[in-house]
Every structure is written in structure tokens, then in C-alpha cells.
Amino acid sequence: MENFEAKFYPSMKKTKELEKKEAGFEIMKTPEVIIQEEKGAQLFSLLLKAENPEWGELETPLAKETIKYFKDNPIDPETLKTIRNFQDEGFDEETLYNFALTYQHPERLEKVLETITKFKANVKNPQEVYYKVLSLLRSFDQTFSTSSLSKKFTNEIEEDRDKRLQRMEVTKKRIKTLIDFFKPNSKTTDIKKLNFVPTDPLYKKNSGRAFSVFPKEQIIISHIDNIDNQDHEFTHSIINPIIEKLSQQLTDEQKEKISQLASEKLKQDYGYGHFSLLCEEFIRTYNDVFKKGKKIQTYKTFMQKISGITEDQFQKFLIENSKLNTRCEQLRIKTIDDFKNKSQEYFEKFEKNPLQNLILELYQEYSNRPNKETENFEKFILEKFSARI
Fold it and tell me: Whole-prediction pTM value?
């Protein structure tokens, strides 16, 4: 096609080259999209479930069967001790899953170790932790793979994979839509392969994870029907490296102000560090508000959302959502009437989100920018954001 254009429409080829030169970057190409099981991650989920039956999904038939299986076939005390030692030593699940994803994929190890050394200062001797995780997975794999439950997991994963393959073209279009909007610089986001892992039957439907520490590859664990979460996780590969660059421009005072502007609810989930808060809020604001044409939540819309909740529903929410429970305990909220009576206080303390307001304004301005062919989201944010804080 390029030779055809050059021969019969030389001005077209010249225009494209000029646009690329003026932009100063090349937009990343849509990555290859695959559906591939990650056995290490699945084994690690099973181990977490074996250690704590309340972890992950509780209601689906396979989740209930898994709980019963480990009740009847508890993991050995040494394995249990190793898992709990990880938790006691402060290793978060993200770090341990990264190590688990090297199971049967040793080519990923170098990049995993490099990333953990860079971003996880609390992980001392990461190579030693890696060997412990790998040994744990190998031992568990040998005992679990011959069980009847293992076969049920295999069947469910294969069914999920087939459904995802049937939806492949729709998935590719969604990824292309995100790339067309953000226009990521191929030198900033260099993802060549995108793996949507078949649904982990032990993950809650509203949960998801993205792993971009592997060379030119992103792995997404997200429920097959949670389309918004799949988009959310992919967008991390675009937003996170931009925020890493932005962080180098920000003063300590600006970083502190970002933490102040973020909602307490977000900080409860992601801590007070500006980097995590910015990454998450940029993605949530785009995914949950901007692309859907919604408005920022106000106290009025918050009240409309909670007005129809019954007492039974509220008590169920408290049981299922430990973070909601913690927030309500802080305000001594025990019933739905308490919640409604203290709704203004609750909204001001936990839901109000000035950072989202700021980011939505930036998205609106970016969407209406005059130079859409030569300015991408990275360039726009690096030029505009600091002056707004």
C-alpha cells in the first residue's frame, strides 16, 4: 500500500512523513492480542485460596468447591508457613504474582527482578524470594495437577478461552480506540504483545490486574465480561510511563498537593503516594467518566445513588466490602439510616474528589485541542499538568 501511495499519490506519502516529523514521535501500533493461560498465576491464586478461604471469589460454584476441597485436603504446614511469611514480611500480592508469572517462563525473570528492584524498595533479596515462590509453585503443581478439581479448572479455563477468541475482533477494536485517543509514543509504551489471560475462576468479577514488567508484553487478568476493567488495565501501559515522566517535573509541594486533592476513598485503596494516585485517577476518570460522557459525582447524585438501599442490602455491603466497613466505623455508621443521616459528612470525607475534577478538565481540553495530529496525550500532559497544581 505504501508503494502504491508513493507512486500515484506522492503528496499523500509526503504529508504522512511531515506529520510524523512535526509530531516528533511515532504512535505505537496495535499490539498482537492473544489468549493464553498463565499457569503460575492460576496456581498462586489457588494457594492464596488454600491459605485463606475468604480470599477472592466466594459465591460461584467452582469457588465454593475450591473452599471445600482445601478444607478436605489442606495444604501442608510448611507451604502454609511460607505463604504467611511472605505476608508477614510485607510482600504485596502484585510482587508475588510477578514472580508467579515467571513459572514456565524463565525469559521473564530478568525484567521482573529489574522492575521489583526499582519500584519495590521493601523487597530485600528479590532473587531469593523468586526461588521461594518458584519452589512453592512447583511443589503445589505436582500434588494439585492430578486432582479432580484441577480438571474442572482446566475445563472452565478452556471454555473461557474459546469465548474470548470468538470476541477477539471486538477486543482489538477497543484496544485500537484507546490507542487512537491517547496516541501513545512507541518509545514510551512499547507493547508488542497483549495477553488477556482466560478468566481466573477465583478472582472476583470486579477485580483485575495488569502486568507490564515483561519485555514488550502486557499480561491482563480480568473477567471476560468486565469490559471496563479490561480497558482500565490496558490503559495502565499508556498512563503509568507518562506519570513516571511527569513525576520528574513535579516539586515535593506539588506531589503533596496531589495527595491532598485525591479522595480519601482512593487513598484508602492506593496509599498517599502521588504516583499511584495519579495513575489510578487518570485511568478511572477516563474510563468511568470521560469516555461515557458522565459528570463528576456530586453530593446530590451520591444521595440519589444511596436512596434506594435497604437495610438488608446495606448490611450485606458491609460484610462484603471491608473498606466500606472501615469507613463507616470511622463515622460510627451501623445502619442504613445512620448512613443517610451522615451522608453529607461521609461524602465530604471519603467521596469528594477535587483531583478527578482537575483531570476531567484536562481530558476535555485534550479532546478539543486544535493540533490533534501532532500532539499526543503524553506531550499534552507534560506541558499542561504542572501549571494546574
Answer: 0.87
